[in-house]
Amino acid sequence: MSRQRARQDGLPYRVYDYRGTKTYSIGYKLPSGKWAFRLKCPIGDRAKIAEIRAEAIRRAGEIGLGRPADNTVGALLTTWVEWQESLPLGVPQRRAESTLTENKNEIVRLRKAFGHMLVSDLTKTDAYIYLDACVKARRPEKGNKEISLMRRILEYGIRLGLLSINPFDGVEKNETVKYDRLVTDAEIALAEKVGRKMGGPQLIVALALKTAWLCLRRSVEVRAMTRPQITDAGIEWVAGKSRAGSAPRIGIIKWSPELRATIDDALAIERYDLAGEWYVFGNLSGQRYTKGGWKSTLSRLMTECVEVATKEEIPFKPFSLQDCRPKGVSDKLDRGDDDVMDATLHTSERMIRQTYDRRRIRRATPAE
Fold first, then answer.
1. Which residues are bridge partners to 72 per DSSP?
2. What is the pLDDT of residues 295-315, one digit of tens each?
């Protein structure tokens, strides 16, 4: 709790001033004890003292309204994250937790590039310099996402009155090569074969890859799968992405002999120290894999697959969970299934066609 002021000076909450022998200072102290800002001037300059007192009171009011303590991009980035985290769950403005976590990682890079600059000094050229640097670093897609996030945060800055025009509006994104990897049946089969031979964590990952294909699931949905999702009717999946405030979309992938056998094999893998709800494709303790842990385990599986494929002189290219959903969608479309939207829990067929349909050959009937 804040201590009661020793003297009544008429200053707002958390604003403190000090009159030294040579210098007058005034600033805003944060709950952490750090100064949000401090303004100083010679003790004998009464006009200047009145000026910085008024400025300190104005800035304190802005902080109380949620505005940054200063007008730097770094302060705006911090304020935007705090604003997001303060929003009630379910309101449209609040981003999903997984999205916000990813945004925080992107903000780390944005802060390094722009954090020291004043918001008012940003120009469209700064965005292009950033995008060009991302191209040289071989991460053009990430650069596009980060600049898109920065544009959105600057829009929030307009709401706070920090600027009137968004300098990143209309920035052209880096051109990227469309990723259209289509995993083959043989590659899925080899990954499962090698995973069974290696056992343990690699078998868990191999069975997760196969499940992602059979159920047309996103990687985050597969890695988060728990025992209660397994029902007599099939596997219950909740859409990994949905609009804030909307009811969750639940889809049931019915059992097939292949899917049933895959899940039974995953459940049969010996685990240790299991307690409560555990993850079907988690580690050997039933805990959910971290991104780093999953990446490392998958890498060992794929490396072994490449070695086996080389010895057997068969084609194989490493793939990930993200590649299995497009394979499932493409296989069902090629077979003529009409339940792809229900299987993916998407609300737009356009998204399915543009992103997940990677068929190399399209079949159609004649006009007549």
1. 118
2. 999 999 999 999 999 999 999
- Enter the pTM of the model: 0.66
What's the chain's length in residues?
Answer: 368
Residue 10 has pLDDT above 80, yes or no: no
- The predicted-structure confidence for 269-278, as pLDDT tens digits, reads as follows 988 766 667 8
- In whole angstroms, how far apart are CA 230 and each of 63, 226, 279, 340? 49, 8, 11, 21
Q: Which residues contact 320 (CB under 8 A, 6 or more apart)?
A: 219, 298
In this structure, are residues 71 and 119 in contact, taking their beta carbons and an 8 Å threshold? yes
CA 130 to CA 136: how far, in whole Å? Answer: 10
- CA–CA distance, 50 with 67 (Å, rounded to integer): 23
Task: Using alpha carbons, select from 72, 29, 37 the residue that is nearest to residue 55.
Answer: 37
* CA 246 to chain CA centroid, nearest Å: 20
Burial 76-108 (b: 16+ CB within 10 A, else e): bbbbbeebbeeeeeeeeebbeeeeeeebeebbe
Distance CA 266, CA 200 (A): 10
Under DSSP, the state recorded for 171 is: P
| Residue with the larger pLDDT of the pair 120 and 68 | 120
Q: Which helix (H) or strand (E) holds 331?
A: helix 321-335
